[in-house]
């Protein structure tokens, strides 16, 4: 399906009726030549034009031919990073620029490294793309982009970490162009079936994996055409509908698979607390024996103590018994255990499980006093018990309460007496001052009246 050329193209319409023709173009590119059909001409509606010599000439590079019965074509041109968008030249010599794509009834998406262009009812004949197109690019006639992935296991668990590989196909043939990974985005989404019998009833949709071909994470080699998805199934257990999605700037394709059942995490954790003089708590690690082979499990985990200290541990010895891990019982407070479990299902499939955090609370130890202190304390408490019994039966008020009432009454009386005395002294002082002022005024008025009488008497004698 991959032709030597410059880009990728998707054709909408009947692929069976589309034909591919090749044409030897002389150095005079303007002359039209009669087409010669190839044996597989019923497969490809776009053909590359020109021989190796002509395609080494700048003006004749990147030429391709569109067949007459193509209703829609989507082309992807990979160019140098950061270069300007390409220019398309029609068979009649007219040009289509990215800036005028809407006026030409053309959809154009330009990225830093590629152009994706959709043309409806393209003009049949030889076309040319002008720009800094990568020389190792190819033209592909894409009838249907699809994601081919391995089927999901029949038994998977909530919290499981899965690795799955997939590849993109153009019809029935893989797409091997490394640059094509920048054009598409591949992801898998889980959609709840909203079955009220399961824990995921009403849960939101969750994208559980994005496929990458960059050599990172679980992907083995970059740009090898094999996309790797790492599933992190940190979603509630229940019935889900997987949706495989291929996203491009122009369109999105979805493939819905049959419902799958996500089982609860099969790892079961418990703790035996230290008692008395014991110095260790014991973490118990078991699994659902109907789903998991207990002999196969390996445990890698860490314990966080209440004071923040961390203890890493690993349990690697195969055994049919419950796995145990001792934890120092030195602190009181909350302990937190986080585990990753490796093992096999009863059907023999390997798995990796991210176990939800497990916490438990350690109470402070009870201090037991010596026997002598216990005896003395009992003797001291005996009279108090007797007093309580008497007060309950006779309803006699307690001495401490009576003394408290008496002291409060005395304090009130003293305050009233002191304040009354002060008030009395003030009133007496005010009365004395007022009386003296009255006496002074009366004496002064008497002297004035006597003097006036004597003066009148002397005047009469004269």
Automatic annotation (TrEMBL):
Q: Which residues cross the membrane?
A: 411-434
Bias kind Polar residues: ranges: 19-32, 388-397
Record field: compositional bias (Low complexity) = 1-18, 371-380
Q: Tell me if Cell inner membrane is a UniProt keyword of this record.
A: no
Record's keyword terms, sorted: Membrane, Transmembrane, Transmembrane helix
UniProt KW Metal-binding keyword: no
Span list, region Disordered: 1-48, 371-403
Extent of Basic and acidic residues compositional bias: 33-43
Q: Which InterPro entries match?
A: CHP03503
The protein here is known as TIGR03503 family protein
Q: Which organism is it from?
A: Salinimonas iocasae
């Amino acid at each position: 399906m991959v032709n030597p050329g410059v880009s990728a193209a998707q054709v909408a319409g009947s692929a069976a009726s589309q034909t591919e023709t090749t044409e030897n173009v002389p150095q005079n590119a303007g002359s039209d030549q009669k087409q010669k059909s190839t044996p597989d001409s019923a497969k490809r509606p776009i053909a590359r034009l020109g021989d190796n010599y002509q395609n080494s000439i700048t003006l004749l590079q990147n030429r391709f031919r569109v067949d007459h019965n193509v209703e829609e074509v989507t082309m992807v041109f990979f160019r140098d990073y950061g270069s300007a968008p390409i220019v398309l030249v029609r068979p009649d010599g007219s040009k289509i620029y990215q800036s005028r794509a809407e006026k030409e009834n053309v959809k154009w998406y330009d990225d830093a490294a590629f152009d994706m262009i959709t043309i409806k009812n393209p003009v049949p004949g030889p076309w040319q793309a002008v720009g800094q197109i990568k020389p190792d690019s190819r033209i592909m006639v894409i009838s249907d982009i699809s994601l081919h992935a391995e089927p999901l296991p029949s038994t998977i668990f909530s919290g499981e970490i899965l690795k799955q590989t997939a590849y993109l196909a153009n019809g029935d043939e893989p797409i091997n162009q490394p640059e094509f990974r920048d054009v598409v985005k591949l992801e898998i989404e889980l959609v709840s079936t909203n079955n009220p019998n399961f824990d995921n009833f009403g849960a939101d949709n969750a994208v559980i994996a994005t496929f990458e071909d960059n050599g990172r994470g679980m992907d083995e080699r970059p740009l090898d055409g094999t996309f790797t998805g790492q599933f992190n199934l940190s979603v509630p257990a229940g019935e889900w509908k997987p949706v495989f999605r291929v996203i491009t700037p122009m369109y999105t394709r979805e493939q819905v698979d049959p419902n799958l059942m996500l089982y609860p995490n099969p790892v079961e954790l418990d703790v035996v607390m230290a008692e008395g003089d014991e110095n260790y708590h014991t973490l118990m690690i078991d699994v659902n024996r109907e789903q998991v082979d207990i002999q196969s499990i390996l445990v890698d985990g860490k314990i966080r103590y209440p004071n923040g200290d961390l203890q890493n541990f690993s349990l690697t010895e195969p055994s049919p018994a419950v796995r145990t891990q001792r934890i120092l019982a030195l602190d009181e407070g909350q302990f937190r255990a986080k585990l990753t479990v490796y093992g096999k299902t009863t059907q023999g499939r390997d798995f990796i499980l991210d176990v939800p955090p497990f916490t438990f609370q350690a109470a402070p130890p009870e201090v037991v006093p010596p026997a002598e202190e216990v005896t003395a304390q009992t003797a001291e408490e005996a009279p108090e018990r007797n007093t309580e019994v008497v007060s309950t039966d006779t309803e006699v008020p307690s001495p401490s309460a009576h003394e408290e009432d008496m002291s409060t009454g005395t304090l009130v009386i003293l305050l009233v007496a002191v304040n009354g005395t002060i008030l009395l002294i003030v009133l007496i002082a005010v009365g004395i001052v007022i009386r003296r002022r009255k006496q002074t005024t009366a004496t002064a008025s008497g002297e004035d009246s006597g003097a006036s009488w004597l003066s009148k008497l002397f005047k009469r004698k004269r």
